[in-house]
Amino acid sequence: MRAMRPPPVGRRAVLAAAASLPVATLPVALPVAAPPAWSREADRASPPASAAGPALSIRDRGAVGDGRSHPLSERYKSLEAARRVHPHVRSLDQECDWAALQGAILELSRSGRGGTVLVPPGEYRLNGEVVLPNLDRYDDAFNEVEIVGSGMRSSLLSWTGDLGEGRFAVRAGSRQGGRDDDGYQRSRIAHLSLRGPRPGNRPGDPPPGMGGVALTSRFLLERVGVFGFRAGVDVRRDHSSLISCQLAKNHIGAYWSAGTESFGDHLFLDTDLAGNTLASIAVAPENGIDHSSFLSCHFGFSPYAILAEDGTPKRSFLSNNKFLDCAFEACGNGWIHGPEAEMFGNSLVGCSGSLLPDYRLAQRPVSGLIVVRVLERNQFTGGTAGFGDGSNDRAADIETATIVAASAVGNRFEDGERLVRMGRDGLAPALAVSGACRGNRFEAVDCSGEFRKAGAGGVEAGELVQRDYDRVRRLEPGNPADGVALTTAPAGGIVPVATAGTIPVAKARAGVRMGSLLRPSSGAAQRVEPAAGSGMAAGTSAGVTAGVPLPAVGIAAGDAAAGSDSVMMELRLEVR
Question: Region Disordered: which residues (predicted)?
Fold first, then answer.
């Protein structure tokens, strides 16, 4: 039997069926803007506009971008005529490029939807602050305005004249005259450079008065170069991010400045802060860097990498920050410097650095690589302890110690080989601590232990030492050994004391065979000698010979001839 085909459905039947369906709420289509006029052949490299709103090119608002000065007086005979096109201008001396950029920002910020200001390739001369609008985070009018160029080397905003102290190249409206509000939220500046009035990279060069970018909350700078300002970026409040930026040839790369407050949680990712005339980062006494992350950043080629400015601090200088795979390279006067400041709870992972006299301030000494008042509960891991081996980092220039602090408590140096070795090689002690020093653990290649203060009489490298309250001193007969001093230190100096592992230890004149159980020498308790009748193989953990307890401290890890002064010993302090 042949199957019957369904009758054909006509166009009218389809329309009638559609009309009978319930009406759905459809999104209202916004009008599609025509392609911007700036998309000429020379400008097509600019990134696409943000989906958050429309895009305006500053070329369409009258910008020239040829690197030369073009005051409004070139185009307008009177201020009234100029203000019919640019209502925000106040003088015919203002640059056309500035008027175009600021006008595009204002136009988008008043639209209720925000948008993107496009900066096509070119050099734009500006002689005023570029002010971004403030946002209220609870406001339904989403007026976020982004500034996007065509590339860090293609789109250049240039200030040849210094606007003066307290002024900025780009700032949020809230960064003005002590106003206290939430500031500008969620802004983005990307793919361009800002050049200030005085680029330089020689230590001691006088800085200009004006700053670069004045951040508030949730700024995003992405592939932005900032050069030639007092501070490339001035940090305020919280949650701003700098990604693949370059802050160089300023007085300070990034500044946690006076009169502002940072709540922390900032991110610096793959950002180059090297080559500034004072510091890669500086912090005013009333400010501090908290809970921020610096990942694969480059500090240095400046007198200091991170500097706490002089003055009585009101907050922790560095608190609970992460420095991952950062380079403190070619610093003139030190890596982290704040003699009155507190460094608390930070993690430095895979970091390293060096000293270079070419970037040194002559009137300031190189006291140490890290100089702070309080060093507490910080963790140095991986290449961080590339504190230097003296071969290429000018470690011999350090005057006091690698790390200098008034108190050091609870720090961890989990790759402390080079830190310890600098003291063993006579270059600089690992630590110099004038006050409390306790709980500072280190891990080296062959041993581990703790940095402790030497008591009366000091200690010599290779000697057995004993506890003296919170200090150590040379071992005395009848007392238990607490470890072996790895360096020589006078009374009050800090000595790394090995408490586990294999280390060289001073011995009596008699020969020692590998595997011998070693005890303090009867003639000099600070040295070791074979225990009577011992011939144990390395690794044996027994602590008695013929039933008599031995005051053993370790096992010989190799032979040592009679008359030699030391022997490699595997510490076994648990064997008593």
Answer: 40-71, 193-212
